[in-house]
Amino acid sequence: MDMATHRLVKVCVVGAGMSGLAAARELRREGLAVTVMEQRGDVGGQWLYDPRTDGGDPLGAAAPVKVHSSVYASVRLISPRECMGFSDFQFVPRPGRDARRFPGHREVLRYLRDFCAAFGLADAVRINIRVVRVAMAPREAGGGGPGCSDVKWLVRSVRLDPGRGEEGWPTEEVFDAVVVANGHYSQPRLPSIEGMEVWPRRQLHSHSYRVPDPFRGEAVVVVGCGESGLDVATELCGVAKEVHLVAKSVEDATTPSPMMSKLLANHAGIRLHPPVDRLREDGTVAFANGSVAVADTVIYCTGYTYSIPFLDTAGLVTVDGSRVGPLYEHTFPPSLAPSLSFVGVPMRVFAPWFFEAQARWAALALSGRAALPPEEEMLRAVREDYRAREAAGVPAYHTHAIPRRRPQCTALHADACTDGDSPSSSAARTARSC
Fold first, then answer.
1. How many CB atoms lie under 10 A from the CB of residue 59?
2. Considering the domain boundaries, does residue 195 fall inside one?
3. Is 96 left (phi over 0), alpha (psi -120 to 50) or beta?
4. How many domains does the chain have?
């Protein structure tokens, strides 16, 4: 697409979380007309805490989930606020607010609201608007193939009534470009464990966990030792009768890491187990080493999958849960660049800075001030990245994890968690202080 001869005017950004706000700010800086569509009642994305859960589907097996946020009540950053600010709008303590270096989720939300106000983005954001379909608009007569300058996007949306849970009539608008920034920490990734479908007691994903009180006096099995698994297990120690924490492998359970050993030493109520072998119909949980626990609840802290149910590109971009692709540098689909871009897909990044860089790149490409490589060159780069990751033994669900040359502390939050897990609070922060 030659942006020098075809200046895009109208750009739709899907989502008003951290990545969507970053995109809106950078697009406006390039003089583009921006409309941000946000399905919830305020900006903030995952950081907008919602006490509700998918009560009828606590495993989150249906897609898409009804409740977007996966943040639980105790979530705090595990990296200092210095790592969480945009380059020109630092996350500094403000009078009368949570001034801790590792603040809670409410302070992060306040920061994002401050960012929105400081750069005058509120008038671009339409709240309580759910995007239900994004597809290429019918081409004009004589139009070329995908990626040509005549590509436009038909965006269908509905207005939500939060009080009644009702949707209005669909509205369709045509945009010159779309930036997908809907996050990827809402749709649970569930393990495949024998007996899950017949186990008679409560099962849920950490997406539906908010506070520990509902598990008072229970024996709970927590599957997963990522940040959220550690947090949930630690919180449950104060109310549950028993807490069984399931490691990723037999080796991890037999020889715990220093971090895990420290956590177990500080929380004697947590029992570490190897992976679950199966769930039995009598309500017991059998582990890989032959041990068995009687449990009331199993909580799966097993991360999230990519879900973009509204996107229809006729197969040019696929979303299989583990990856979105092909994406050049995790941002542009080669055959549709730059009219379609993605901000916020990568994992294991300094989220504000990385998303800001992605957004700036997309904005420059759309304004014609930055040129992208030819389509075939971008496709070749994506294929080479896939091959290199496969050769290194990187699982497909880490396709969008950005490798580091050396260990760094990472700002963990719902839009860009370090381990493909959900937001984390004080337990993980204490165990792996950076």
1. 17
2. no
3. left
4. 2
pLDDT band at 413 (very low <50, low <70, confident <90, very high): very low
How far is the C-alpha of 252 from the C-alpha of 160, rounded, in Å? Answer: 46
3-state helix, strand, coil in the chain (%, to 5): 25, 20, 55
What are the tokens at 327? Answer: 């994406």
CATH number for 271: 3.50.50.60
Model pLDDT for residues 358-405, shown as the tens digit of each residue: 999 999 999 999 999 999 999 999 999 999 999 999 999 899 998 765
Residue among 40, 39, 44, 41 at smallest CA distance from 20: 44
Domain boundary among the residues 266, 300, 334 is at 300
Asked if residue 372 and residue 334 are part of one domain, the reply reads yes
DSSP, collapsed to helix, strand or coil, labels residue 28 as helix
Classify residue 131: in a domain, yes or no: yes
Expressed as residue numbers, the domain containing 106 is: 10-41+76-186+304-416
Q: Kindly state whether residue 197 falls inside one of the protein's structural domains.
A: no
pTM: 0.89
* Strand-by-strand arrangement of the 297-300 sheet: 202-205, 297-300, 219-223, 242-246, 270-273
| H/E run at residue 158 | strand 153-161
